[in-house]
Design brief:
- The complex is a heterodimer of chains A (324) and B (359).
- Chain A has helices at 81-86, 121-133, 153-160, 177-183, 196-209, 251-257, 294-299; strands at residues 7-17, 22-29, 40-48, 51-58, 68-73, 93-97, 100-101, 112-117, 138-144, 164-168, 189-193, 216-219, 232-236, 241-245, 275-281, 284-286, 302-304, 309-311, 315-317.
- Chain A has 324 residues and is α/β, with parallel strands linked by helices.
- Chain A has a 5-stranded parallel β-sheet, with helices on both faces. A 5-stranded mixed β-sheet of chain A has the order 14-13-19-15-17.
- Helix content of chain A is 19%, strand content 32%.
- In chain A, α4 crosses α5 (196-209).
- Chain B is an alpha+beta fold.
- Chain B folds into 2 domains: 13-123, 3-layer Sandwich (Rieske Iron-sulfur Protein), CATH 2.102.10.10; 128-356, Naphthalene 1,2-dioxygenase Alpha Subunit, Chain A, domain 1 (Alpha-Beta Complex), CATH 3.90.380.
- Chain B has helices at residues 151-159, 163-167, 175-179, 204-210, 283-293, 300-317, 330-347; strands at 13-17, 26-30, 33-39, 45-49, 63-65, 68-70, 77-78, 84-86, 104-107, 110-113, 142-147, 182-186, 190-200, 216-225, 229-238, 251-264, 267-276.
- In chain B, α1 (151-159) packs antiparallel against α7 (330-347).
- Chain B is elongated, with a radius of gyration of 22 Å.
- Classes of the chains: A alpha/beta (324), B alpha+beta (359).
Chain lengths: 324, 359
């Protein structure tokens, strides 16, 4: 479904910290309220270094009262969207979109398995509330690094009881994906939102189970990798130039800023339009996209510049430019 | 900001006769949404947005491969839930790639489609249309697809049968209709008009079917279910045999059925049937009745068809809206009120309804 973005002004009604680094924002739009279906996000105009940019945040909960709720994790070493959001005080004027949805929840399936990692709980929480409302058969597996990171854990416990299972990484809990998938009804669906490592594992285990791939649904906003972001250098022999990618920007943004002609669309690692050939690297490519298969990522011949990064070294790439 | 349409989206609408949907791609426009329908090999009906996720080419220009639709442009494949299962030239599938899948239910020999929020698509909200099942009542109807008028004009037409006197003179029309009193009642989802014409000469159609001489009591009990189905319980019985009190044994009973589906704001699909409980095994009568309704421009419904399209043209040309209303329009006005309430509840506030804005 093509997404049409319909912008409107809004007001930040209140904020509440769910954990030490996850904050809930309640936003009142002006004009007609369009209720977000489970899996929806809203786009928000953020200011980064004085320039407007757009970030997507999943709606949290059914939002039936005409107020959008989103939860934002403060990520200091990323591109600055969360830092901007955390700078807002109640009463702030905002520009937001009506909800869009890339992660729709199907109705009427015999069973659902939901899997959330960290801040990936936001769309999964909304799905769990909707499924509970419909008396659907579902379970939610929610993994976090530390117990104090379990945002919305109490609300979930209260609403869905023992259909929730939590897994605390530092307490040694691990999710056995093979047996969780094996328990699921053959026509059941699996919804995943979390860091790229979790998505890749979910895809791998699902594929190995032989189940139809269209019954696995996942969403990524392309902001998490296997490694923490660090600055890196991009060498482009064809153009005789080098471009530095800072921590707070994507490789695609850095290339565009340096005048490299790029085409791109989704800018979240799904469509593959911004992918470029890797000629050489002395570092490690942190593939953060869902466009390339695991085999293609292992072959390491291309990368999605909108989300993927390099650590511990530099990268040499080619571009589409040809002398005319 | 979206302008409210004159039809609710969170409702079941007739999309096709069951027999029309086979294991091949069929198209319909329902409430301005282009839909491609097909019957899966397990008999279930799939209804997808008729526009490929990739470049919006109508999927109906593609083909069915087993139970999935292959786009006729670049070969993307969508399953019956609307999910993309194949993309050319890549090893993975973009997780965002899908087209809308519309809930459908097959009931009463029709395929019903829910164009609104799928989470609300409860089969318990289907209108009661059991008269069309082909069991207790028999008859073969049809559809005027893309009739060029606002669907509400068809509801108006059926909710006031005084028009029979003028549009259908010589068959079912009769002066008695215009002079008989009628009663209008309603619930929050339905409106009913009851009209009894006591001790009258039967009009030609009914006289012939009854096959007995003498005066009759004639009834028209029209039942509207919001937003757009109408069932008219109609018949005659020899006068004085107790039909108004509930004993219809000395009479004959029919029912006209209408499921009207908005196509655009100014066109609709009119699924109709006329069913009866008398001479049920008489297939010639079934064919005759069908021909009496639609017959190359000569049938009763062809007459309505002409009136409705001409009315829409006149409405388009004459900014003098609203209509003026008569006492006879009470049933139609209740029907419109119930539909407007459905639309308003979808938009959280009252909609602007031109036909009711008194000026």
């Amino acid at each position: 479904m093509a997404e049409q973005i319909d912008w409107r002004s809004a007001r930040l009604r209140s904020i509440r910290d769910l954990t030490s680094d996850i904050r809930l924002f309640e936003i009142e739009p002006s004009g007609e309220f369009v209720a977000p279906a489970p899996g929806s996000h809203i786009n928000i105009v953020v200011q980064i270094n004085g320039r407007p940019d757009v970030r997507c945040y999943s709606a949290v909960g059914p939002c039936r009262d005409g107020v959008y709720r989103i939860a934002v994790k403060l990520l200091p070493d990323t591109r600055g969207g969360s830092k901007y959001m955390w700078s807002l005080a109640p009463g702030a004027q905002m520009t937001i979109s009506t909800p869009g949805n890339h992660f729709e929840l199907s109705h009427g399936r015999p069973e659902y398995l939901l899997l959330a990692g960290g801040i990936g709980i936001t769309p999964i929480f909304t799905m769990a509330m909707a499924l509970a409302q419909e008396n659907a058969n579902f379970r939610l597996l929610y993994a976090c690094r530390r117990r104090q990171d379990l945002a919305l854990g109490d609300e979930l416990k209260e609403r869905i009881g023992d259909r929730l299972q939590t897994f605390i990484d530092e307490e040694g809990a691990r999710i056995d994906l093979d047996s969780e998938i094996a328990r699921l009804s053959p026509r059941g669906e699996f919804y995943v939102c979390g860091p790229i490592g979790m998505l890749e594992a979910a895809k791998r285990h699902w594929q190995q189970s032989g189940r139809p791939m269209d019954q696995l649904r996942f969403e990524t906003f392309g902001n998490s990798g296997r490694f923490a972001s660090e600055p890196f250098k991009v060498k482009i022999p064809r153009l005789g130039t080098e471009v530095d990618v800072l921590v707070g920007q994507t490789m695609l943004e850095a290339l565009e800023a340096a005048g490299v002609e790029m085409i791109s669309d989704c800018r979240r690692g799904e469509c593959g339009l911004c992918a470029l050939p890797i000629l050489e690297t002395d570092g490690v490519v942190d593939h953060r996209d869902v466009f390339f298969s695991e085999e293609e990522k292992a072959a390491n011949t291309k990368l999605c510049t909108c989300v993927s990064r390099v650590i511990a070294g530099s990268i040499t790439i080619d571009t589409a430019d040809r002398a005319s | 900001m979206t302008q409210a349409k004159p039809f609710p989206l969170n409702s079941w609408y007739a999309a096709a006769w069951s027999h029309e949907i086979k294991h091949e791609l069929a198209t319909r426009t329902i409430c301005e949404k282009d839909v491609v329908l097909y019957r899966r090999s397990d008999g279930q009906i799939a209804a997808l947005e008729d526009a490929c996720w990739h470049r919006l080419l109508p999927l109906s220009m593609g083909r069915l491969k087993d139970d999935q639709v292959v786009c006729g442009y670049h070969g993307l494949v969508f399953n019956s839930a609307g999910r993309c299962t194949y993309m050319p030239a890549q090893k993975t599938i973009n997780p965002s790639a899908c087209v809308r899948a519309y809930p459908t239910v097959e009931r009463h020999r029709l395929v019903w489609l829910w164009p609104g929020d799928p989470a609300l698509a409860d089969p318990a909200k289907l209108p009661d249309f059991h008269w069309n099942d082909g069991t207790e009542w028999v008859g073969e109807g049809g559809t005027f697809y893309s009739l060029r008028c606002d669907y509400r004009l068809v509801v108006d037409n059926l909710m006031d049968l005084t028009h029979e006197t003028y549009v259908h003179a010589g068959s079912i029309g009769d002066e008695a209709i215009t002079s008989a009193p009628f009663e209008v009642t309603h619930t929050d989802r339905s409106a009913t008009i009851t009209r009894w014409m006591i001790d009258i000469d039967p009009p030609p159609f009914w006289a012939k079917q009854l096959g007995k001489p003498g005066h009759v009591d004639r009834w028209q009990i029209i039942y509207f279910q919001a937003p757009s189905t109408v069932v008219g319980d109609v018949g005659v019985a020899l006068t004085g045999t107790g039909a108004p009190q509930g004993n219809r044994s000395q009479g004959i009973n029919g029912a006209f059925l209408a499921a009207i589906t908005p196509d655009t704001e100014k066109s609709c699909h009119y699924f109709w049937n006329f069913v009866r409980t008398f001479r049920k095994g008489d297939e010639q009568l079934t064919r005759d009745i069908q021909r009496a309704h639609v017959n190359n421009g000569q049938g009763v419904y062809d007459q309505d068809h002409d009136v409705l399209e001409a009315q829409q043209k006149a409405i388009d040309k004459n900014p003098r809206l609203p209509f003026y209303n008569l006492n006879i329009d009470a049933g139609a006005l209740w029907a419109r009120r119930l539909t407007e309430q459905m639309v308003a509840s979808e938009h959280g506030q009252g909609m602007h309804v031109p036909s009711q804005a008194a000026e």
